[in-house]
Amino acid sequence: MISNLTINPQRLWDMLMETAAFGGTAKGGIKRLTLTDEDKAVRDWFRKECEALGCTVTLDEVGNMFARRPGKRSDLPPIALGSHLDTQPTGGKFDGVLGVLGALEALKTLHEAGYETNAPIELINWTNEEGSRYAPAMLASGVFAGVFTREFADSREDREGISFGSELDRIGYRGTEKAGGHKLGAFFELHIEQGPILEAEEKMIGVVQGVQGMRWYEVVVTGRDAHTGSTPMTMRKNALLGATRLIDAIDAIAFDNLPGVGTVGLVEVKPNSRNVIPGEVFFTVDFRHPDDAVLDVMEAALKEKVAAVAAERGLEIVLTPVWNSPAVKFDPDCIAAVRAGAEKAGFASRDIVSGAGHDAAYIARIAPTTMIFVPCKDGLSHNEAESSTLEECAAGAQVLLSAVLAYDERFAGV
Ligand code: HGY
Ligand code: MN
Ligand code: MN
Which residues surround ligand 3, an ion (CB under 5 A)? Predict the structure, then answer.
């Protein structure tokens, strides 16, 4: 029987609004790129909040933060809950942070009630989920899950050439524990859907079944800088034109493989001067699809187009795979706990597969894992106008608490 503990909606909302100040933007969003001073500030706040609940806060070698609340059975691996506190450059108030603060609210509710779980509970803030400053995304949960090495993470550089490792040391959040050095008994991640389905169907809870496959690439197109006035059209090696042909092709490849998606989000043109034919263009590619075999088809189509544009335009084009996160299915027992939590609270729910990537996608490789979605306005995310209501956030946190307690019941009396 799941407990009747209920979270405090206003307290959760106040925490969301309070932490939105760390990197808050004039348009009401958040710019809190990983390992910046703004990230440090919110980490310091988070650590203090957890310690005030009597949790022990530890760090691993890639800055993942773990706040542990003991249970009756210290020999059991913790049931974990959490998400990420880093944001996109024009991020919103809810992506990632709702999962961390929803979990914190659940812990505050347990603490207030003096409720002792069977298994320990661990609240987690994963470093660099967004992958905006340091590619790939979900980098530190990936190290924890054994997908990447610590050395690989440390070596990743942002577009200014500053490394992940140097920034992690600079903000003082590198711990001593080896990433993945301790087991998790399960992992539950609360997150906004970042898509339109729950809102359109008027469902409060998404019972997440898994995450679609995701692949990132980097492309460098090399032509030749030349004068825009005196270089005849037939003699140009225009890198930007080549990139433009590819960017259009990437959109067409996605439309040819729906519900797949294809996006170019970052483009750098050199020398970026209005009267120089661009000699070099760097851009990123983001392909996603629920079926990895279709991602293979999309990738093959891109490679073919790269070769064709290079030949047609006399350009050198290098396509480098940067990230491949296969489609993930979540754990049936964890999913059942979420469904029970939604039913108990009387929230309308529907099964859903995540279009966005999440740390849970990697943690699912090493522990029973699932996610809980709540709606966001117009399905908008990675946008400063991202918004969810107090009721939606509270519903998610309530189901998170209920799901964790339902899952914890399996350890009663063992
Ligand atoms: O890219 C993603 O899906 C996530 O927001 N990092
Ligand atoms: Mn997120
Ligand atoms: Mn995100």
Answer: 95
